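User: I'm putting together a teaching handout on how sequence relates to shape, and I'd like one worked example. Could you take N-acetyltransferase from Eiseniibacteriota bacterium, show the sequence you're using, and then write out its predicted structure as tokens right after it?

Assistant: Happy to. First the sequence, then the structure tokens directly below it.
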Amino acid sequence: MTTTVHPSAQLGAGTTVGEGCVVGAGVQTGSRCRIGHHVVIHADTLIGSDVRIDDHATLGKLPMRAANSATTREQELPPLTLGDQCIVGTGVVLYRGAAIDAKVLMADQCTIRENVTIGRGTIVGRGVTVENVCTVGRYCKLESECYLTAYSTLEDRVFVAPGVVTSNDNYVGRTAERFKHFKGVTVRKGGRIGAGSVILPGIEIGEDGLVAAGSVVTHDVPARTIVLGAPARPWREVPVEQRLEHQGWSDS
């Protein structure tokens, strides 16, 4: 149950560390951080002020690469960075090479891979996986157990409901040709994806577009349009009162 803090680590004023933790070389935290029990913070990780890290979280993990991995490559990665006032839930795994802005909530058991950026105020729900080489904007909501495939981009204020699955390989793991065509999904500002939907590789969901629950999206979704079905087809325009510009939200 002994906590080990490397001599070169710098913990900010008022920071507390629980039992059984390992804090690696060169780790830096801001002031007033709360680190729970059995947390592992790998070398060089940079953590802002007023950050809460719950039990059994792992920060700064190095990627693993299988011999036949299609998207993971050997590379030098910058340290994991975590902005002020973030919350890291129990069992969360954050990889080295991720950059997470301020006020991001990462719920229990979620995973954020390398070469990922997460914008300010975003919520990453319980059990969510954000694969490598993804960009997630500000004030997004990725709800429980959704899966964001590698090489995807979500702009600001995107909503992804529970159980959504995205994909990036139209060749479904066969033929060498597939390596030339990996492409994740793109969701423009204010786009929304309903529960249990499946989004195929390379699809773009336009600004304020809405995918109805349970849909299979095989073609791009026009801006401010609701699509539904399997395969998804345009149904009608997003009601004016639901559009992003009418929500009165602040980006502060």
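A couple of points you could highlight for students: The chain has a mean pLDDT of 95. The chain has no helices and 32 strands.
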